[in-house]
Every structure is written in structure tokens, then in C-alpha cells.
Amino acid sequence: MTFLSQRLYNFLEWTQFYRDLQDYGNSLIQMSVVDSIYRQTQDAHVIQTRLFEPEIPEWVKKAVPLRLDILMMFGTLPNSLGKYHKDGFTRKAALNVPLNGGDKGCIEWSAEDIEELKIYGPRKEVRISKKEQTNLGFRFDLPIRDRMTLSQPVLLDTNEWHRVNNLENNEYRFVLSLRFFGNPDLNTLIKLFDTKKTP
Ligand SMILES: [Fe+2]
């Protein structure tokens, strides 16, 4: 059963680079932006900030073993459940670092397939659930394949159905996410971020 044994994430050790990234990400947090995107989308898990390659600080670009495509910051409302989604078609995997509240709540992957709706936009494509998109406030209660709390930096699979579960957390949850050119999958990133070579 390759489906069930396939790994979905791989933790990395904390280093000074990840602590610096954490400080940098925390300095960008704007809860009012998260609130305002939530009012428009009714999705409690939002992308607060997107920095494309030219806007990403040089010290970040230099430290990673692959060319960076985008730096994103996610914000999730307290006591909320994000919608199921798969990230952009060109974003199979990510390197995530917990920011303020990022070590609370969890990412959970569905054990079942979901009917998808593709959303296209300039530099933004995402696959979301047709049912959650068309039924305001509806959330699936499907069997969970795996859950992961970001207690440390992590490489994770964003190409399978997943969502952010922040129901038990009374605070906003912020996470910084790096995506790479060439659309590497999780196994490729794991090899490149071998802990011995980790920045
Ligand atoms: Fe995601």
C-alpha cells in the first residue's frame, strides 16, 4: 500500500537560519490583513503575504539549496478550521517554519479523495473542494490520514488534500512557507535538505 506508507512530512532541526527566518516572519505579521481576507473569502486560513523572488531577502535566498520561487505567510484565525485544498499545481511541497502561534493547531491530511475545483489566477492556482466552496461554512468530517503540529521547521507534502485545524487554539496561528523553482516534490526536498547540509 504505497498510498498509506508514503510520508507526508519530515521535520528539520532548528538552526540559527530558521530562528532568523522565524524572527523575520514574525516582524511581518498583520492580523488586520488576515481578518480582512477572511471577510472576503470566508476561509479562516489565509495567505497574509506573498513575496516573489526579487522581493525575498538575499540572506534567505543564499541559505537554501534550491532557487526560491516564493515566500508566503499563512495566518489562521483563532478557533477555526480551514478549507481542504491542494496547493498550486506547481507547488508539490514546501518548507514551513512556525511563527507566532504556528506551533499550535495542526495540519491534517484527508484519508479520502475530495471532488476538486481548480482556481486560476495570476501566479496563483489552487485546488479546493467544490463542496466546501459552494456551501458557505460547510466543512468535511472525513477520516484523517495524518496530523502534524509544527513544533519545528518541516518539509511537507502540499500536493495531497490537507487543511489547517486551529479549532483548539485560542490564538492566531502564523506560519512562514518557502516554495522552490522546478516544483520539487517532498522526496526531492528531503534529499536536498539532508540534516547534514541544512542551512
Ligand atoms: Fe496548503
In the CATH hierarchy, what is the class?
A: Mainly Beta
Class based on secondary structure composition and strand pairing? alpha+beta
Q: How much strand?
A: 25-35%
Largest sheet: 6 strands, antiparallel
Strand arrangement across the biggest beta sheet: 1-10-5-12-3-2
CATH second-level architecture: Sandwich
CATH topology: Jelly Rolls
Helix coverage percent: 10-25%
Order of helices and strands: HEHHEHEEEEEEHEEEEH
Rg (C-alpha, Å): 16 Å
* Global outline: globular
Count of beta strands = 12
Number of structurally distinct domains: 1
Q: What is the count of helical runs? A: 6
Mean pLDDT: 91
Can you offer a commentary on this structure?
- The chain is an alpha+beta fold.
- The chain has one domain (11-192): Jelly Rolls.
- It has helices at residues 2-5, 16-27, 31-41, 58-63, 130-134, 186-192; strands at residues 9-11, 45-52, 68-76, 85-86, 93-98, 106-110, 116-121, 124-129, 144-148, 154-157, 162-165, 173-180.
- It has a 6-stranded antiparallel sheet.
- A hairpin with a 2-residue loop joins strand 7 and strand 8.
- It starts with a helix and ends in a 7-residue tail after the last helix.
- Fe (ii) ion binds next to loops.
